[in-house]
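Worked Example 4.2. Consider the chain below.
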Amino acid sequence: MLSQKVALVTGGSRGIGASIVSKLVDDGFAIAVNYSSNSVAADALVEELNFNGVKACAIKCNVADPKAVKQMFDTVESKFGSIDVLINNAGVMQLATLADSADELFDTQVSINLKGTFNTLREAANRLNDGGSIVNLSTSVVGLKLETYGVYAATKAAIESLTGILSKELRGRSITVNAVAPGPTATDLFLTGKSPELVEKMSKMNPLERLGTPEDIANVVAFLVSPDGSWINGQVLRANGGMV
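Applying the procedure from the previous section yields the following structure tokens:
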């Protein structure tokens, strides 16, 4: 009998991350749920999974800290033996025009979105099981180029470049590395600070005329890490209802 596969999901306690966790659990994975500061949501999610017989744990880690990321991988390996799948979902979004972007806005998004992803990719490149999968979360704003999203989109564009390059650097290990680029999705990250009128406008920008759901994105991620997605490698899948 094959051993159970293990997935590490960063930012896995809420929103798209929690939906990814739920979908991977349905597909039979043991799960490590990473969170950055607030343990309430992560602990509640893991408690529910454990109650239902799922092997799961919550791990606090600021992905911007390389030492903490190494310790997170150590913890997952100590609990589950090894790691097969890494989902890089942790991120922050702070919007402003370039003219009004403060240094703190720039530094925070670069440290968490870009360096955080780099830190986990570096560990995964050295520690992930052969035959595994990595999925990085990007954004369809890289294609849309909407005003005020400049710094956020720039960090995600860099992540898309890392995705393609790492897929080639892992040649010979049968590890796929892809990115999923959601469009506007009904999460707190997207909805916070937006007027109902703006949300409605953005929901109509794609031909399907609705916001994405966290489950829409989770389904794409789960496909990429499943055997059905094993021939897709080094790609960016825009999951946005046809917006761009």
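Residues 6-239 form a domain with the Rossmann fold fold (CATH 3.40.50.720). Residues 121 and 208 are 34 Å apart (CA to CA). Compare this with Example 4.1 before moving on.
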